[in-house]
Amino acid sequence: MEKKDFEAWLDNISITFLSLTDLQKNETLDHLISLSGAVQLRHLSNNLEILLKRDFLKLLPLELSFYLLKWLDPQTLLTCCLVSKQWNKVISACTEVWQTACKNLGWQIDDSVQDPLHWKKVYLKAILRMKQLKDHEAFETSSLIGHSARVYALYYKDGLLCTGSDDLSAKLWDVSTGQCIYGIQTHTCAAVKFDEQKLVTGSFDNTVACWEWSSGAKTQHFRGHTGAVFSVDYNDELDILVSGSADFTVKVWALSTGTCLNTLTGHTEWVTKVLLQKCKVKSLMHSPGDYILLSADKYEIKIWPIGREINCKCLKTLSVSEDRSISLQPRLHFDGKYIVCSSALGLYQWDFASYDILRVIKPPDFSNVSLLGFGEIFALLFDNRYLYIMDLRTEKLISRWPLPEYRKSKRGSSFLAGEMSWLNGLNGQNDMGLVFATSMPDHSIHLVLWKEHS
Fold first, then answer.
1. What are phi and psi of 326, to 5 degrees?
2. Rounded to the nearest 5°, which phi and psi values hold at 111?
3. Considering the chain, what is the average pLDDT of its residues?
4. Can you tell me the distance from the alpha carbon of 235 to that of 227, in angstroms, rounded to the nearest whole number?
5. Which residues contact 84 (CB under 8 A, 6 or more apart)?
6. What pLDDT score was predicted for residue 412?
7. Longest pairwise C-alpha distance within the chain
8. Residues 97, 87: contact at Cβ < 8 Å?
């Protein structure tokens, strides 16, 4: 049949076929298939697969495509990106999908950034960092060497680590370079805290002192405790320094003059931690912006209102066992909203507005695990062998890092967490610098640091 005649015949039969009912169309196809040879059947088999497929992602409105994609896990989405250029374009354009994927990994989300390609790249970076944590490959170690006797006191701030030692000195180190910036002669240090100009030390000689970094001069001496001073905190705005001691008391001092303004009593054990912090929540007893003092001993945490009114009474005493059968760890977390402390029973979190216990977290073998840092997403914990990261949303340990045989201290502050902002969610910028520091039997300082991103 000539091509022209064939095309005319095909048009006529097509018009007739379209006028048939579905049943008649099916019977027609069945008849044509029965008349077909091997070549025609092979042709039909190859083309049916293509004809039956529908690229729903291409056919659907973009909003519906995004809605469907939200139900897929990120790893599947990455695989789907390989299907076609069109699929890759649609999937990569779904900002919410990639933001949610990042959030699920514990990443901080800035909703003001709406560039979907940015969030896809962030996700790829995030999943690599989380894999490193899971595979115990996210950290590295180094040491600071310079003291000649036991290092008991540690304090970290903005990339700088202060160490106080029984060799009657305090040193300030740049963690990134390992260089000692300042070294000054002091008394024996049980606690240290510093800023750009000064260093405040609590000592085993029962006193507190304030030193000037640049000259090493002692600018103030606070005398009055009858036991070792284990913890200090201060606030320049209030001109107040607080100290916790083995004499069971907390003292409030005028920072500029060294005068003792008040002695807070009520503890029946060594006061191993004092924290001076602004309140961020409202209750019947305090308002946002009020300064709050927390003091902790082996069994109790006491809450004191403090500020320009010096003569304060204890607002509340918190404990985990009324019969004192369960002791608290000396490391205490308070961010103005929540109080967190660890014990042999687990990790306790109190709501500061109501003083109610919000939850008790009990990871495996918690009796030996202590708190280092606590955030909105992650917690940093440690025991005699490992440093742990816990996802607080699931209360599961997601990473661990081996620790050396460090110098153990049940009472003191000879270990601490470094940078803390990542505990509220990683962002690709805050996972750098110091993670953990502890003093060693050879008087060095062991550091655990974030590895740089690959």
1. -120, 125
2. -65, -15
3. 89
4. 23
5. 55
6. 54
7. 117
8. no
pLDDT for 356-386, tens place per residue? 999 999 876 666 788 999 999 999 999 888 9
- Give me the amino acid identity at 85: K
Token pair for 317: 């005493």
Q: What is the pTM of this model?
A: 0.81
Pair of tokens at residue 84: 């076609």
Cβ–Cβ < 8 Å for 244, 224: no
Beta bridge partners of 264: 250
Q: What is the DSSP string of 204-239?
A: TTS-EEEEETTT--EEEEE---SS-EEEEEEETTTT
Distance CA 454, CA 270 (A): 46
In angstroms, rounded to a whole number, what is the distance separating the alpha carbons of residues 64 and 31?
41
Phi-psi region of 266 (alpha: psi -120 to 50; beta: other; left: phi over 0): left
Closest CA to 197 of 178, 177, 216: 216
Q: What is the pLDDT of residues 404-442, one digit of tens each?
A: 887 666 555 688 999 999 999 998 889 999 999 999 988
pLDDT digits (tens, 9 = 90+) for 29-55: 889 889 888 888 888 887 776 666 667
What contacts 290, CB < 8 A, 6 or more positions away?
A: 278, 279, 305, 307
CB 271 within 8 A of CB 312: no
Separation between Cα atoms, residue 269 and residue 43, nearest integer Å: 89
How many Å apart are CA 385 and CA 381, to the nearest integer? Answer: 11
Strand-pair partners of 177: none
Q: Which of 425, 379, 371, 418 is nearest to 398 (CA)?
A: 379
User: Which of 356, 358, 388 has the alpha carbon at shortest distance from 370?
Assistant: 388
Query: Own/partner pairs for 343-350, CB < 8 Å, 24+ apart?
Result: 345/320, 345/321, 347/371, 347/374, 347/379, 347/381, 348/320, 349/374, 350/318
Residues 126 and 132: their CA atoms lie apart, in Å, by 10
Going from N- to C-terminal start, the domains of the chain cover 3-47, 60-135, 139-450
At a CB cut-off of 8 Å and minimum separation 6, what does 294 contact? 273, 274, 275, 277, 301, 302, 303, 304, 332, 334, 339
Residue with tokens 């059947």: 41
Cβ(232)–Cβ(187) below 8 Å:
no
Whole-angstrom distance, CA of residue 231 vs CA of residue 224:
15
